[in-house]
Structures are given as C-alpha cells and as structure tokens.
Amino acid sequence: QCSCELPAKMPDTPLPIAHERIWNSRKNPKTDGKGGAGKVISGKGTRECRCSGNQHGIVRKYGLNMTRRDFREKAETMGWKKYR
What we know:
By secondary structure, the protein is mainly α. The protein has 2 helices and 2 strands; from the N terminus they run H-E-E-H.
C-alpha cells in the first residue's frame, strides 16, 4: 500500500504548456550548501518518486513525479484510461 497523496483527477483536455513556463520553472535551483555560490545540484538523481522514493523511471509529465511502475498501479484510481 502506498501512503502518498495522489493528484486529483486529471482534466479531459491536455494542459497548455508554454515555452516560458517550462524555461523559467526553476528560478531557485538547489545548491550544494554554500549559500548559492556553490555548484548547482541538478539532474536525474535529484528527483524521486512520490510513492516509493525510487529514482529510476520517473514520469514527470503533468507533475506526476511517479515511477512508471507506480503510475501503472495507480493510474485508474487517478482517473486515467487506457485506450490501446
């Protein structure tokens, strides 16, 4: 059982994502603890699944931030439908 909070039901229409919204989405990057003067910490290893904490196979689209495995298990309860 997963104790994470699942996002609300996804909208029927896709969300419009503008270039500026994505480009400027991370204004304050994480640093290595030197008060902003150090090396910026970024990359695949900084993101983890909201359910299992795993860092491999993260689905970030629509703000899911879940592994592919957890998404497949919980997609139907979140309101996603499989058409194929």
